[in-house]
Amino acid sequence: MNIKKLQEAASNFGTPVYVYDLSIIESQYNKLQNAFKNIDNYKIHFASKSLSNISILKFIKNLGLGLDTVSIEEIKIGIKCGFSIDEILYTPNGVSFSEILEAKSLGVKINLDSFESVQDFSKRYSNHPVSIRINPGIYAGGNENISVGHSNSKFGIPEEFITDLIKMEEKKQIKITGLHIHTGSDITKNNQFDEGIKKIFSIATKFKNIESIDLGGGIKIPYFLGDTKTNLKDYARVVELEYQKYKNITGKDLKLILEPGKYLVSDSGYFITKVNYIKKSKNNFFAQVNSGFNHFIRPTLYKSYHEVINLSNLNDKKEEYTVVGYICEKDTFAKKRMISKISKDDILCFKNAGAYGFNMSSNYNSRLRPAELCIHDGKIKKIREEENLEDLLNNQIDVFD
């Protein structure tokens, strides 16, 4: 954490503001590369839904990663950022078939998410190569909202349809060349990863045309000192074992795909705000900042923990504060947290704000979205302008004018 650069960012560009340290993204990527160094044929695709600023995407592309997308817009942004068609994966959920057709026309690799969409696709493109997302029936993840692989989830094709898919392939109605699995985010229990990995490799032996297995993301990083995290070494070891077991059984080599999002960019991001007031109540000292869940919704939506640093007063005695925003609803960033003494106009920084921070921001309460900055080669660069009122009104139509 480069305190001086974060202080400089707040001083020179104002608040609220998002700041991303690109060296941390590169460091996280190198850790993944090192963990999977014993597997010859694999590719890491960044989950662009977590952070889709074009400067970040271009930096990630230059590191050598591909792109994981979930919408036609993310595909087009990826193409604009220079990703080649074969570097882009598209895994939609519940989208219209017309969007799937548009993605097909662009030439990207498609992971179909439902048996119904596979049927529609097979009618249009008989025996055409396609990947499918399997629902493994595993409950895993740090929050109910991000646990997506259980049997009641809307994501993926349930296992009971595998026999139907095999029959479709035998009739040359579809050609399944890839399998995809993603059980959830912030997975701390390696046995949940292990179960999913073993299951998807086992399923792969049932399909004769498999060329790739996509293990999705979900790797958890620690959010505070002593927090849990995914054991990356153990995770990679299980993948290696199942990868080799599949090769021994089938005699085939597979391409392995990983789709980290939060793992790559969460630690790189900082959300910086300014304290408007210290408001006293019977049982609380509220630090009221110049932002709200319109800018940073994860603490409200997911009850996520983000360490709060007082950049204006780093080493003073710690006192208990509840840090809240200015939205006219409950928008608590941090409840009863011990933070170095806070005064009016102090600058507070929320750590681990790189993933699903700006990307989930909104104009709720007609508030303007903040700027984004990056730290690269020791310099702070603006990579998105803060909005103004004209941006807010731009696409509205006044029928009474």
Q: What is the chain-wise order of helices and strands?
A: HEHEHEHEHEHEEHEHEHEHEEHEEEEEEH
Shape: globular
The largest sheet, given as strand count, sense and whether it forms a barrel, is: 9 strands, mixed
Number of DSSP helices? Answer: 12
Topology of this structure?
Layout: H1 3-13, E1 17-21, H2 22-35, E2 42-47, H3 54-63, E3 66-69, H4 72-80, E4 88-90, H5 97-106, E5 109-112, H6 115-124, E6 129-135, E7 157-158, H7 162-170, E8 175-180, H8 190-204, E9 212-214, H9 232-250, E10 255-258, H10 262-265, E11 269-280, E12 285-289, H11 298-302, E13 308-310, E14 318-324, E15 332-340, E16 347-350, E17 371-376, E18 379-384, H12 389-393
Parallel strand pairs: 1-17, 2-3, 2-10, 3-4, 4-5, 5-6, 6-7, 6-8, 8-9, 9-10, 12-14
Antiparallel strand pairs: 1-11, 11-12, 11-16, 13-16, 14-15, 17-18
Helix pairs in contact: 2-3, 8-9
Q: Can you describe what's shown?
A:
The structure is a single chain. With 401 residues, the protein is an alpha/beta fold. It contains 12 helices and 18 strands. The chain has helices at 3-13, 22-35, 54-63, 72-80, 97-106, 115-124, 162-170, 190-204, 232-250, 262-265, 298-302, 389-393; strands spanning 17-21, 42-47, 66-69, 88-90, 109-112, 129-135, 157-158, 175-180, 212-214, 255-258, 269-280, 285-289, 308-310, 318-324, 332-340, 347-350, 371-376, 379-384. Strands 1, 11, 12, 13, 14, 15, 16, 17 and 18 form a 9-stranded mixed β-sheet that branches. An 8-stranded parallel beta barrel has the order 2-3-4-5-6-8-9-10, surrounded by 4 helices. The longest helix has 19 residues, at 232-250. The chain is globular, with a radius of gyration of 23 Å. The N and C termini lie far apart (51 Å). The model is unreliable at 139-143 and 145-150 (pLDDT under 50).
